[in-house]
Design brief:
Elements: E1 6-8, E2 12-13, E3 82-84, E4 92-94, E5 112-116, E6 126-130, H1 131-134, E7 162-164, E8 169-170, E9 184-191, E10 194-201, E11 225-226, E12 229-230, E13 244-253, E14 256-266, E15 290-291, E16 294-295, E17 298-299, H2 302-308, E18 313-320, E19 325-332
Antiparallel strand pairs: 1-2, 1-7, 3-4, 5-6, 7-8, 9-10, 11-12, 13-14, 15-16, 17-19, 18-19
Length: 334
């Protein structure tokens, strides 16, 4: 069994539904038993907590002088930033995020959390919000401990908001495998609060790899079974193999939509338009996304757009289906 115990978001231990990646726990991290599949030792710049005689790990600041400034409209913010918050009158210039803990142009800096709105048409929107906007009741407050740093059920200050109770370290959230360390996979973790996407140790000896058949998400190393095939997360179309595109799909548990995420799925058309090429419909584009008259790609952070379509910004758009609504980021001109 794939088992792990995570403390996250609401400050409670997630009780997973329909997943074998769980560990029996007393509330808030009591004695647990069983095998565990948790995070691996990581090798990127913000992973391992410092020894007592080392300098503390610093999550890089966002490279924009307007980040964190009060605002009323997005026009007041720098390129790639949006004006956002939870209530009118308490909005700041900020950026889309994933929750990797890397800071800089990749994600939120220290003192900010990657907040997932998870409601109505905002389902899918993740934005960096400051500690004072979220308040002391938000898990991870004041969001200062980097990935790999120490945490516990009674002391979760993870900047990513997620604490692995078994390893006692802060966990990385992800939107694609490239957000994770070598030997890890971006896994869709089901819970009573919806899905959380976190980096866990890959285990292809037990779980099925991308492209293999499946009947249930718990059979897949990624935690996502689309149709009858294990699929992987993606941030943008280039994350996917030839013949695939990065598309938004609902995550269904017990017959109900529990959230949306972007995954690599088979192309439906044979379009030839590259990024930036003019288009009239999705079928004109290789990646099958035509918006505002140009072929484009989904995105998770502004770095995705800086790399793939310089001059565009990662802008959230709202979508609606018969039974749910969600949002997704795309590289577009502001």
């Amino acid at each position: 069994m794939r088992q792990t115990a995570l403390l996250l978001l609401s400050g409670c231990v997630l009780a997973c539904s329909g997943s074998t990646r769980t560990t029996p726990l007393s509330p808030l991290g009591g004695d647990s038993g069983g095998d565990s599949r948790t995070t691996t030792d990581r090798d990127d710049p913000v992973d391992d907590p410092p020894e007592d005689d080392e300098d503390p790990i610093i999550i890089p600041e966002v490279d924009d002088p307007t980040f964190g400034d009060d605002c009323d409209t997005t026009a007041e913010c720098g390129p790639g930033l949006v004006c956002s918050g939870l209530v009118v009158g308490a909005t700041i210039c900020t950026v889309p995020c994933i929750g990797t803990g890397r800071g800089g142009n990749d994600d939120c800096p220290s003192g900010f959390a990657c907040y997932n709105y998870e409601s109505t048409t905002l389902d899918g929107v993740q934005i960096c919000l400051a500690d004072w906007q979220l308040g002391a009741g938000e898990a991870g407050y004041p969001f200062t401990t980097p990935p790999g740093g120490a945490c516990s059920a009674s002391d979760n200050a993870c900047q990513t908001q997620v604490c692995d109770l078994e390893s006692g370290t802060c966990v990385v959230q992800c939107a694609a495998d490239r957000d994770c360390a070598s030997g890890e996979v971006c896994y869709a973790y089901p819970s009573d609060m919806g899905y959380l996407h976190v980096c866990l140790a890959s285990d292809l000896s037990t779980y099925r790899s991308v492209g293999e058949s499946c009947a249930d998400p718990s059979e897949c190393d990624s935690g996502i079974c689309l149709g009858s095939e294990c699929v992987e997360h993606c941030r943008a179309t280039p994350d996917c193999a030839p013949g695939q595109t990065c598309a938004f799909w609902p995550l269904i548990d017990d017959g109900s939509v529990r959230g949306w995420t972007s995954v690599c799925s088979a192309l439906q058309y044979s379009g030839r338009g590259d990024l930036w090429d003019a288009c009239d419909s999705d079928s004109d584009c290789r990646g099958e996304w035509c918006l505002e008259g140009s072929c484009t790609t989904p995105c998770a952070t502004r770095d995705d757009c800086d790399d793939l379509m310089p001059g565009t910004e990662c802008i959230q758009l709202n979508f609606a289906s018969d039974d749910s609504a969600f949002s997704g980021g795309f590289c577009l001109m502001r």
